[in-house]
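To start, an entry.
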Amino acid sequence: MLEMLISPQKAERKPWELFFIGIFYASISILLVNWIFVQDPVLSTRSGILVVTFTVMFSLPFMYYVIKLEENKATQHMGALRLLREHRKAIWAFLWLFMGFVVGFSFWYIILPTTTSFQEQIETFCAINSPDNFGGCVQKFGVKGTSAPTAFLSNKERLFLIFSNNIYVLIFTLIFSLIFGAGAIFILAWNASVIAAAISIFTQSNLNILPLALFRYMIHGLPEIAAYFVGALAGGIISIAVIRHEMGTDRFWSVLQDSLNLIILSVVLLFVASILEVFITPIFF
């Protein structure tokens, strides 16, 4: 019931409604984990993963049917540009859903009195932003951990490191989508939770600063996540075509060509996002 609050057709007509669906899914996931698993001595230590898992469970049916709808479009011989414009509707829906995840996770991270529900997210945040002082970073935000330091990086080195890391994530997004059409939603929900942890740390538990923090991380975050969604859509379209036993047919080659165009677009978006993160975001923050 909860996982299908909105149909794919309606989502493409009114994608902004997915923003509120995303907030609802994120909120329900966090509250369920805190009510059910907080007393468990084992599961409570990995509640950050459980929160993402519940969010994924709610989102999977919607993701699957949207990708199925887009696969049908890929076989209608619209032409590459027109087809990309058609896929844009699904990408906007996914982005609104993602933004709902980020806002929902951020709100509850600020509201909750402890960092228990986001331990893994804080560790990931520190590994990315304070690799030279990982142990001190996680301890500062209430999590125990250690890691080896790394050297200072120049902007060009950071650009290469960020872009290569994003490509690595994109590859896994494609693999997840190929194995299971909507499987990439786990990576995307996880990224939403990590960004939410970063936003919440930036606000220092002050809800009034939340809009500014969202702007700070969405400057490069939106094109980056859009790239992952484009990649997820490409892999999911191929996955559904294979499930339908279309390999070797003209329909399958049309789908493959469309997916290749989407993958190229996702790589371009990732490069733009990396440039924004290294050179533009620091200008404002």
User: Anything to note?
Assistant: The radius of gyration is 19 Å.
